[in-house]
Amino acid sequence: MAATSTTPGGKTLPPMMTSLRVDGSGQVEIVDQLLLPHTVKWIPVSTPEEAFDAIKTMRIRGAPAIASLAALSVRSYLSSGAASKFSTPADVSADLGSILDYLESSRPTAVNLAEAMNRLRRILKSAPAAGGAAEVSALVEKIKTAAFAVHEEDQERNRTMGRLGAEWLWQQRGGKDGKKGLKVITVCNTGSLATSGYGTAIGVITALFEADHLDTAYYAQTTPYHQGSRLTSLELTTLKIPACMICDTMLGSLMQHNDIDGVIIGADRIVANGDTANKIGSYQAAVLAQRHNVPFVVVAPVTTVDLSLETGAQIHIEQRPAVEATLVRGKNLETGDLSVVRISPEGVGSGPEPWNQVYNPSFDVTPAELISAVVTEKGVAVRAPGAKSIDVASVC
Ligand code: MRU
């Protein structure tokens, strides 16, 4: 856990959960998120293979956090002696090139991972192919520094986004009819467990809380992986932020019966026209938000913006194994043991028969026309009334 911090409003926040940590010797450890919220177990991740496995199995998840781990695993690989086998910079490029491709293939939708790998590729590309020990050593050091920066840069920008998003939403809804605090909804988990610290959408919620501008943060359970009920719940209760969990099926009812001020989500990929891929369930929240006149705000770092794609139709949406939707992880009330239990009949999700199918996309795409604003560390891009797109390039 990170140290306590005192807010501008004088509040002292308890230490936040963190997804990963790096010790003085460079050893990387992650919290096994499959065991949360019941058990906090740190596991070492020393190689690109271990990082791939941790990302693929979602022991670590969240767009910025997986980018950080992948980059840090390249740094660990180079620090572990692998660099001694290189004779020329071309050897470094050939070896790391395939490792970066491999790491990038672990999860396809979150562009932060691809962007982090591209950042390292750009360094490899700009290096002269010829040279000896001195050139190899300089290149290896450059890669290691850039890999660490992927992780380190994430924390500071999250605080900036949190502040910008909270200020914008407060301007829209604060003070109206004497309102002292906002009621907001979030989907998935976007806090310190999904990033290198503070979070994106949860960063905005935390900043509202720090400024005494939050009434309640409602969060959806976010099935089938339960990022909301397992992880967001843990983060918000740890920070003692007023929060209320809802089932995914209750979003409409909540907006119908409460004066909700905003839906705030993170993102895995925001494309040039503002269409945004995020955790499954985000799109339905956006449709309901429009129906109820509630601002729908996307919060993500510039590394989540992919200007190479024009519309959301081009985003590759990851399909998770069908069987994941038929299981839940939890704590046995009698024994206290952690277990995975099946909630559907045998065969559902694992048989080829037409009656055993499961639809399990990990993400959905919210069209820009349903998004009120995109917040990055560079600013807030607001959709003009009636517009079908958002100028995300203006905040990159
Ligand atoms: O499948 P996950 O848990 O990796 O999905 C995470 C999300 O969709 C988050 O909302 C997104 O990555 C933003 S995290 C700051």
TrEMBL record:
One Pfam family recorded for the sequence: IF-2B
Keyword line: Amino-acid biosynthesis, Cytoplasm, Isomerase, Methionine biosynthesis, Nucleus
Group of enzyme by EC: isomerase
GO CC annotations on file: cytoplasm; nucleus
Annotated metabolic or biological route of this protein: Amino-acid biosynthesis; L-methionine biosynthesis via salvage pathway; L-methionine from S-methyl-5-thio-alpha-D-ribose 1-phosphate: step 1/6
Xref: NCBIfam families: eIF-2B_rel, PRK05720.1, salvage_mtnA
Record-linked PANTHER family: METHYLTHIORIBOSE-1-PHOSPHATE ISOMERASE
Function: Catalyzes the interconversion of methylthioribose-1-phosphate (MTR-1-P) into methylthioribulose-1-phosphate (MTRu-1-P).
Family: Belongs to the eIF-2B alpha/beta/delta subunits family. MtnA subfamily.
The protein's name: Methylthioribose-1-phosphate isomerase
Highest classification ranks of the organism: Eukaryota, Fungi, Dikarya, Basidiomycota, Agaricomycotina
